[in-house]
Structures are given as C-alpha cells and as structure tokens.
Amino acid sequence: DSRPLRAVDFRGVSQGAEKNVVLEKLGSPTSKVLIPEEGKMVELYRYRRGGTILGTVRIVDGTVDRVDFIN
C-alpha cells in the first residue's frame, strides 16, 4: 500500500504490541532515537509528513510502551 501515512493509522498500534507490528502498520519512522535507560533499550520513533509530526511511538525492549498521535 503506497498511500501516505495518516495520524489515524496510529490507532492500529497499541501498547504491548511488538516492534514489528509498528513497522508493518506505520512503515519506517522518519527519525529514530535509541536510548539505553536503566538496563533497557528505549527506541523513540517519530513519524512526519512534510513539516508536520503525525505521531511518535516509544518502544521499550521491543514492545510498544506508548503511542502519541495528533487527531
């Protein structure tokens, strides 16, 4: 599917989902930050379209911890 990512697509990713689900549903992030934190690996995925941030996903040790998106 080559349609542009929309903020509503973030509803398909829920807390507790595996990282591969994020990549399947949202594709590769526009930017990614890796942070070792208290013995865990935290990944922050940011998705943009143009200059607009559509949403961010926080992944801890391969599992979605938080999803934020603009309605």
Structural notes for this entry:
Helix content is 11%, strand content 46%. With 71 residues, the protein is mostly beta strands. The protein starts with 18 loop residues before the first helix and ends with a strand. The radius of gyration is 12 Å and the shape is globular. The protein contains 1 helix and 4 strands, in the order αββββ.
Question: For the residues shown, what is the average pLDDT?
Answer: 93
Distance between the termini: 22 Å
Which stretches are poorly predicted, pLDDT < 50 over at least 5 residues? none
SSE arrangement, N to C = HEEEE
Number of strands: 4
Secondary-structure-derived class: mainly beta
| Biggest sheet details | 4 strands, antiparallel
Per DSSP, the total helix count is: 1
* Global outline: globular
Q: Helical residue percent?
A: 10-25%
